[in-house]
Amino acid sequence: MKTTIPRLLLASSALHLGALAYTVRPHQQQQQAIIAAPGFDDDASAPSLPQPPYRDDLLSLHKDLVTIPSISSQETDAGLFLAKYLVKRGWFVDLQVVPPLNINGANSNNTERESKRANVLAFPASARHAVPRLLVTSHIDVVPPYISYSTNSTDGKIDSYTLISGRGSVDAKASVAAQIIAVEELLANNEVSEKDVSFLFVVGEETHGDGMKFFASNLDDRVKFQSVIYGEPTENKLACGHKGMGGGTVHAKGKAGHSGYPWLGKSATELLVRVLVKLVDADLGSSERFGNTTVNIGTIEGGVAANVIPKDASAKLAIRVAAGNQSTGSELVRQKVEQILKETDEDAFTLTWAEGYGPVECECDVDGFETMVANYGTDVPNFKGDHVSYLYGPGSILVAHGDDEALQVRDLEAAVEGYKKLIKHALRD
Ligand SMILES: *[C@@H]1O[C@H](CO)[C@@H](O)[C@H](O)[C@H]1NC(C)=O
Ligand SMILES: *[C@@H]1O[C@H](CO)[C@@H](O)[C@H](O)[C@H]1NC(C)=O
Ligand SMILES: *[C@@H]1O[C@H](CO)[C@@H](O)[C@H](O)[C@H]1NC(C)=O
Ligand SMILES: *[C@@H]1O[C@H](CO)[C@@H](O)[C@H](O)[C@H]1NC(C)=O
C-alpha cells in the first residue's frame, strides 16, 4: 500500500510513535566552525581545538548508538533507541517495519524481535504535514562482529584528538549522530525551515540494501525530494560518486578421469584458472572519474581429489564497475566477461550474473569541500529518482569494516559542520 508522508508507513504500524512527540527543545547558541584535516594526528603537542557547544550531545548520542549492537537483520533495538531519542527532541517519528532478512539463507528462522526491524523516519513535529524538500539519510546496521565502544582516554577527559573505537563508530553511526546534531543546530538557529527537512535511518545497507529499497518502493509517487544527503565514511570529503557493482559465479565444466592421463579428461580447475587470469588482466572498462573496473576473485572451488581430473570448478567474483552509467555499467562488464569466457572455451563456462549497477554519480560541486571518489557500494542506487544525491560523512572506509574501526572526536565535529554546510547548500533557493 502506498501512502503519503507523514503516513509513509502502513497506517496500522504498531510502532508508530508520532503521538509521543514532545515540544521542540530550546534553541542553542551558534558555534564556531571547526576545520580539521582528515586522518589521525598523533602529535601530542598539537594545539587543542575549540570545543563546540554540542560536543557532549554529539558524543553521547554517538556512544549510545555504537553501544547498541545492530548487525544487519538485528537492528530492532537501534531503531527503537533512535526513535525514542528523536521523539524526545520534538520529532514526529514513524517506524517503517522492514520484512526480515534471511541472511543465513532459507534455513534461518527469524526471531520475533528481528521481525520488528524498522527504518526510522522523522519530521519536525510542527511540520509533519509538509512534504520536505530534503531527506537526510544513513544506515543503522553494521557488519559483524560486534566490537564494544571504547576511547583511548586514560583519565576520562575527552578532547578533539580522543580516538573513539567500536563497531559502527565510523560506518555509519558517526554519520547518523553528526547528521542529527547538524540538523538540530540548523533548526535551532532558524537557518533552515522545519518544513524542509526529514530524516531516514535505514536497516540492511551492509547486506542487500533492503531497508532503502523497501522505503523507495513504498514511497508515494507524489513525494519528490529535491535532494538526498547520504551519510557514509568519506573522510569528510564530498564524494563525486562511487563505482558500480557487478559479478557473480563462473562455473567451469570439464570431464573427469585419471590424473595420469590428462589428455583423456578435461580439467575444470585448469580452465578456470586460465580464464580467471585473463579476467583479472582484461580491460573491463574505465572512465576518467572512476578509474579502472577491478575484479576480486573472492572464492575458488573445484575438484574432488589430487589424483582425479576435476569435472567441476567455480569462482565467485565481485567486480567494481567504472565504465558506463548507473543503468548500463553492469551489463557492459557482463558482456565483456561473457566474451572472454567464450574466447577461452566455447563450451566449458557458464556465468551466473548477480544483478548489478554501474558507476553512481553524486553532486560534488559545492564550495568549501574537498572531493573524492569511492570504490564501495552505498544505498544511493537503491533510491532512484530525480533528486540530487550528495554523499558525505566522517571517518575512513579503510578502517570501517576492520577490527580497528575508529575515528577522532574532531572528525565527528568537522562532520557536523560539513553537514550543516551541505544542508544549507541543498536548501538554497
Ligand atoms: C588517542 O589516539 C589519537 C589518534 O591516534 C591520538 O592523537 C591521541 O593523542 C590519543 N590520546 C591518548 C590520550 O593517548
Ligand atoms: C526453523 O523452523 C522450522 C519449523 O518451525 C524447523 O523445522 C527448523 O529446524 C528451524 N530451522 C532453524 C535453522 O532453526
Ligand atoms: C588502469 O589500467 C591500465 C591498464 O589497463 C593501467 O595502465 C593503469 O595504470 C590502471 N590505472 C589505475 C589507476 O590503476
Ligand atoms: C546511460 O547510457 C545510455 C547509453 O549510453 C543512455 O541511453 C541512458 O540514457 C543513460 N542513462 C543515464 C541514467 O544516464
Automatic annotation (TrEMBL):
Task: Please give the SUPFAM superfamilies that the UniProt record associates with this protein.
Answer: Bacterial exopeptidase dimerisation domain (SSF55031), Zn-dependent exopeptidases (SSF53187)
**Requisite cofactors:** Zn(2+)
Q: Which UniProt keywords apply?
A: Hydrolase, Metal-binding, Signal, Zinc
Q: Which InterPro entries match?
A: ArgE/DapE_CS, Bact_exopeptidase_dim_dom, Peptidase_M20, Peptidase_M20_dimer, Peptidase_M20A
Leader peptide range in chain numbering: 1-21
Q: Does the keyword Signal apply?
A: yes
Name the source's superkingdom.
Eukaryota
Xref: Pfam families: M20_dimer, Peptidase_M20
**Transmembrane intervals:** none
* Domain called Peptidase M20 dimerisation: residue spans: 241-344
Which molecular function term from Gene Ontology is one that the record holds?
Answer: metal ion binding
PANTHER family reported for this sequence: ACETYLORNITHINE DEACETYLASE (PTHR43808)
Family assignment from sequence similarity: Belongs to the peptidase M20A family.
Task: Indicate what this protein is called per its UniProt record.
Answer: Peptidase M20 dimerisation domain-containing protein
Task: State the organism's lineage.
Answer: Eukaryota, Fungi, Dikarya, Ascomycota, Pezizomycotina
